[in-house]
Structure formats: C-alpha cells, structure tokens
Amino acid sequence: MARSTNGRNNILRSARDTFADKGFDGASIRDIAQTAGLSLSALYYYFPSKQEALYELVHTAYSWYIEHCQAVIADVDDDPVDQLAVAVRYLARYRMENVSVSTVLLRDTERLTGDNAVRVKELQREAREIMGDIVQTGIDAGTFRVNSAALATRAIHSICNSLSLWYRPTGDLTPDMIERDFTQYSLRILGIDPDEAELDRLLALPVNQAGMLDFIADTK
After folding, report:
1. Are 170 and 98 in contact (CB under 8 A)?
2. Tens digit of each residue's pLDDT (9 = 90 or more) over 181-210
3. Whole-number mean pLDDT of the chain?
4. What is the rounded CA–CA span in Å between residue 183 and residue 48?
C-alpha cells in the first residue's frame, strides 16, 4: 500500500512544530506522534526515527526554497542589482512566512548525521550559491564593490536569517517595511546606496507570492 502524501505532510507539520517548540534534542518521537494525532506505530510507518523526520523536514524545506528562489530570479532580467533585490526579498519573505521551520533549519540541521548530513550540506551549499553567484556576477561586472563574494553573501544571509529569531506577525514592523529596509541594507553591503526612487523600482519587481506559501501542502 502506498504511503499517503497527506499523511506524510501531517507528520512533517507536526515535526516542524514540535522541533521548533522543543528543539531536536528536547523533542521525542512520541511528541511528534501526539501532535500529529497518531499512534507511534502509525508514525513509524512513515518515518522510522526522529532523525529521519528531521531529515525529511529539512530536505523538503531547502528543496522548496531552491526551486522557488531560482524561479523568482528567472522572472527578472540579468541585471545583478535586480536579481539581488528579488533574491533578498524572497529570502526575507520566506523567513517571515515560515518562522517555525526557519527556526528548525537554522538551529537543528546540525543534528543530522551520516548520509542525511551529507545530503543536506549539499542542499545548503546550493541554496547559499544562489545569492553568491549573483554577488560574484555583480563583482565581475564592476557593479558591486566588495572584495569577497562569499563574505558579502554570508552577511546578507545573516541579516535575513535573523528574522526567524525575532520577527512575529503581531509586531509593529510589517513585512513590506522589513523587505524594503533589508533590500537597502543588502545593497549597501555591496557598495550601493539606492535612493528612494530606486528602492521603489526594486520593490515593484515581481516576486511570486506562491513561493511564500506553506511548503508542506496537502495534495488536492
């Protein structure tokens, strides 16, 4: 009998919420089963261990991010400023729309072991290089004025990744405000200080909102 996609996604959502709340080390496989409303035997039908549930959650999240971020960048022209802007905006939105899973990704991914860790490290590298390649292209073209593409990329990622630590939708800062300021901060890191008109233009570039939705979606 084939495993139900909806059943798998129910467990992934439960793993996301459990790991975000308790951390990988503090969570148990029984906690995940209880959150999912399943018996342990039913959960084991999908994932044989807490480690496998974490791997599947992290793998799914990174794969989603890579696919949708690349699609967002493909929607604009080859100008590295435009590509950088939409990539930053997408990453910021992703973090704000997926605070729980972002917390797990940034805190618990290192708990993966063996082949799981190897496969996810490759996905992490691929995700990081999306922004890194844009930065390097901008440096090569003389558009961005920094010495190290790798260091500048890490700085930009650090700004956006911090959202999972402090952003809450009930706060005073709206996603639009954060998106605008983070775009400005990222370009300043790269030696560009856009004026208000340029920021308006960059914030008007298309970023597919479908890529912000919950990536653990049941099939219709």
Report:
1. no
2. 999 999 999 999 999 999 999 999 999 877
3. 91
4. 42
**Cβ 98 vs Cβ 214: under 8 Å:** yes
- Residues near 102 by Cβ (< 8 Å), separated by ≥ 6? 94, 95, 161, 163, 164
What's at 21, amino acid-wise?
D
Q: Which amino acid is at 106?
A: L
Q: State pLDDT tens for residues 117-133.
A: 999 999 999 999 999 99
8 A C-beta contact, residue 16 and residue 100: yes
Residue (of 11, 1, 18, 10) closest to 218 by Cα position: 10
Q: How far, in Å, are 16, 34, 52, 207 from residue 12 at the CA level?
A: 6, 13, 11, 26
CA pair distance 127, 157, nearest whole angstrom: 10
Provide, rounded to the nearest whole percent, the portion of the chain with pLDDT above 70: 92
Q: What is the distance between the alpha carbons of residues 75 and 95, in angstroms, rounded to a whole number?
A: 21
CA atoms within 13 A on the CB side of 107: 18
Q: CA of 99: how far to CAs of 20, 66, 129, 171, in Å?
A: 9, 17, 22, 14
> Rounded distance, CA 67 to CA 126, Å?
11
For residues 12 and 38, is the Cβ–Cβ distance under 8 A?
A: no
End-to-end CA distance of the chain: 20
